[in-house]
Amino acid sequence: MLREVIEPREITPTTVYLVHKYAAEGMPAGVIAHTLERCMEDVGKALEQPIAAAQSALIQEYFVRYKPRKATE
């Protein structure tokens, strides 16, 4: 199966928040990229950007530990 190449694009405030949220919950960077349909470069750039204290508080309040799904055949 061929994988689609995802090009870097503009990093939005929503992307920054979601990347930080998923990373805090333990989601691997590759899964974050796939989930948000972003390239790994975008995920790295989003993690480099700070989030507001209120956003950090929301991440803590609604924290859900990431659990990988079992592969289905």
Please give a structural write-up.
By secondary structure, the chain is an all-alpha fold. It contains four helices and no strands. Helix 1 packs across helix 3. The longest helix is centred in the N-terminal third of the chain and has 12 residues. The protein is flat, with a radius of gyration of 13 Å. The mean pLDDT is 91.
- Number of strand segments: 0
Instruction: State the shape.
Output: flat
- Report the structural category: mainly alpha
Main β-sheet, in a few words? none
Kindly report the average pLDDT value: 91
Oligomer classification: single chain
Cα-atom radius of gyration: 13 Å
Task: Indicate the proportion of strand residues.
Answer: under 5%
| Poorly predicted parts | none
Spell out the helices and strands N to C: HHHH
Estimate the helix proportion, in percent: 40-55%
Distance between the termini: 15 Å
Q: Please tally the helical runs, counting DSSP H or I stretches of 4 or more residues.
A: 4
Short description:
By secondary structure, the protein is mostly helical.
List keywords for this structure.
single chain; 73 residues; mainly alpha
Describe the secondary-structure layout:
Layout (H helix, E strand, L loop, with lengths): L12 H12 L4 H8 L3 H9 L4 H9 L12
Helix pairs in contact: 1-3, 2-3
